[in-house]
Amino acid sequence: VQLVESGGGLVQPGGSLRLSCAASGFTFSIHSMSWYRQAPGKERELVASINSGGSSTNYADSVKGRFTISRDNAKNTVYLQMNSLELEDTAVYYCRKSGTSLWGQGTQVTVSS
Question: Which residue of 26, 55, 108, 112 has the lowest C-beta tally within 10 Å?
Fold first, then answer.
């Protein structure tokens, strides 16, 4: 049972990245999924969540209109499309099987000029 994130990297302000989180070992399609992030010296915060079927999403105010969470249940993968990235988006991004202790290892996103 695991979650594996990928897609992080270094990007300039205003740029875009797409994070992926591949799930295995559980029935992905019946679980809500979430993306969190943790910046240096700050607490981990919820960025976005999506229900099992993908029909309902929620976002932190700080990313609304810039980030999009989606999922492909056939591929057991949840995505986070991040556009118009800002310096303040720099953090380690984690996916989580919502409401459980199952987390991925994280992927670093650095926004810098």
Answer: 55
